[in-house]
Every structure is written in C-alpha cells, then in structure tokens.
UniProtKB/TrEMBL annotation:
Biased composition range(s): Basic and acidic residues: 1-18
Domain CRAL-TRIO: 109-275
Name of the protein: CRAL-TRIO domain-containing protein
Segments of this protein annotated with the region Disordered: 1-30
Length: 301
C-alpha cells in the first residue's frame, strides 16, 4: 500500500488540466476582465470610481477591490450598479467586523476546530479549482460560531491558491454526509449564516457543490434552506449517492469534476489519504506568520 498522503494544502500538480468548458470553469482571467469591462464599461467604471474616491475606505478595503473583485460583485447582481455597490460595501463592513484585526488567526479556537480534518482543502479539480471538503461526521465541538469561522478561513485559503493566470476564480465544494445524524448536524441558524456568508460575501466563488450521500434528514433541511439559496447557486448543487465504483453514477459524476487519482479512496478515487492535523496545521501557522511578517493582507479578494 502506498504511503498516506499528508500534503493537504493545495499544491500545483504536474497533470494536464482540461480546457474550461462554458459554464463550468473560467476563461483566461485577463481576457475575461477585459471583455466584461468593455461590455459593462459604465457600471464597472462608476463602481470603481465610487470605491476609490471614497475617503472613508481604508487602503486595505481598496486593495481588496481589484478589477476582478468588482466584476464579481457586478455579475452577482446582474450588473445593477446600486445593488452591486450595496453588496460590496456590505462585504467590506462584514470583513472589518468578522475578521477583527484584519486576519483569521489559525491559533486558538481555529486550531481546535480543525483538529479532526472536518473542513480542509485538498487538491485541485479538473479545471484547476481548489477542492474544499466538509465532513460533518468529524464534528468535534459545539462552538457554532468558530465552526463557521473555520469554514471561512478555508474559503480564504482556497482563494489564495487560485491561479489567476489560468482564470481560476471559483472552487469546488464537496460535502460528505457519511454517518450524518442529528448528533453532528449543524443547527438551522448555522446553516443559514453560512449560506448568507457564501452568497453575500463570496459571490461568484462557488463553481460546483457536490453533496455526497445526503440522507433524508438533510433533504428536509435543504428544503427549509431553499428560500435562502440564490437561484444561480441552486443550479450549481449536485447530489450523488450509492456505490463509488467505476461505472456507477457517483463515480461518473465525481470523475466529471475531479481527477480521481487525487480523490480519497472512500469516494472512489485512488488516493490513500490520512489527515494529520499536526502536519497540516503547522503549515497553516507558518503561512500565517509569514503573512504577518511581510505585512501582507491575509484577506483575499
């Protein structure tokens, strides 16, 4: 048996990535930004002027508002200037409040929350998007605020790993419902908060969400969450269940999005994966320290 893979931070594999199909992945970043700037020039230029001429915003706020960021917020509100600006300013305010000192510190509560590997970034999908795994069965606390904070931290790490030269702006989310029960199911309020964070503060960041073996209990929860999920997000949700063997539907769907040789064996892949928290988190702490020393913003656009 091969040695378990403990390199859980996103790496750049040497494999060939597939050309991004329309509606699944992105085109070249510079071409896309230029195209949108031309097509929606007035809305883009006006939003940019409103942000960069606003003396109440900090340098960090403006650094967050890259051209690509502005276009994502415009896209999320169908290029309606007023609604896009309201959404963006809401995010800038939220980041100040939620991030406290401008960073999500991996020390303390986040270290504890991450101890079981219930939320982690592992590998890239076929379209060079980072893959974020959520595994509720590994829940190890009842601190719902810090649980969501850990997920936000991992969203940011996904964003930091994205290859803008390839055009990557989105991530692939896999929620594994194996052994999901009332004991480890998050409360409805936590689910709603996470959906709000994802849709309002990370617009246009979700490529696809693959829900693996969702039980009846979650299906009921999902129905209750429907009113809080944007229509475009619903289109990105894929349910798979059953056998993960080659030739089966689950394997077919997963292999459509993922390189199966990077996918853990429990999902029908070839990777022998073992979460080693000490190894994983020591790299997170080193990353955090290097960011602080360089005085670079820890937030991503």
């Amino acid at each position: 048996m091969s040695k378990p893979n403990k390199e859980t931070i996103v790496e750049q594999p040497t494999k060939k990535f597939e050309a991004p199909p329309a509606g699944v992945a992105e085109t070249n970043e510079s071409r896309k930004v230029a195209s949108e700037e031309i097509l929606h020039a007035e809305a883009f230029k006006t939003l940019k002027a409103h942000i960069f001429d606003d003396k109440t915003l900090t340098d960090a706020d403006k650094q967050f508002c890259t051209d690509a960021c502005l276009l994502r917020y415009l896209r999320a509100r169908d290029y309606h200037l007023e609604r896009s600006e309201k959404l963006l300013r809401g995010t800038l305010k939220w980041r100040k409040e939620y991030w406290k000192n401008g960073a999500l510190d991996p020390n303390g509560p986040l270290d504890i929350e991450a101890g079981t590997g219930k939320v982690l970034v592992h590998g890239l999908d076929r379209y060079k998007r980072p893959v974020l795994y959520l595994r509720p069965r590994l829940q190890n606390t009842t601190n719902y605020v810090e649980q969501n904070r850990l997920t936000v931290y991992m969203l940011e790490r996904c964003i930091e790993s994205m290859d803008a030269s390839y055009g990557t702006e989105k991530l692939t989310l896999i929620i594994d419902f194996k052994e999901y029960s009332l004991r480890n199911a998050p409360p409805m309020a936590q689910n709603k908060e996470f959906m709000t964070i994802l849709s309002e503060h990370y617009p246009e960041r979700l490529g696809v969400a693959i829900l693996v073996d969702a039980p009846m209990i979650f299906n009921m929860t999902y129905k209750l969450l429907q009113p809080f999920i944007p229509a475009e997000t619903k289109k990105k949700v894929v349910f798979v269940s059953g056998s993960a063997k080659p030739g089966q539907k689950k394997h077919e769907v997963l292999s459509k999005y993922l390189h199966m040789n990077d996918v853990p064996a429990e999902y029908g892949g070839d990777a022998v994966f073992e979460y080693d928290h000490e190894h994983y988190w020591s790299r997170e702490l080193s990353h955090y320290d290097s960011k602080r020393m360089s005085q670079s913003p820890l937030g991503s656009d």
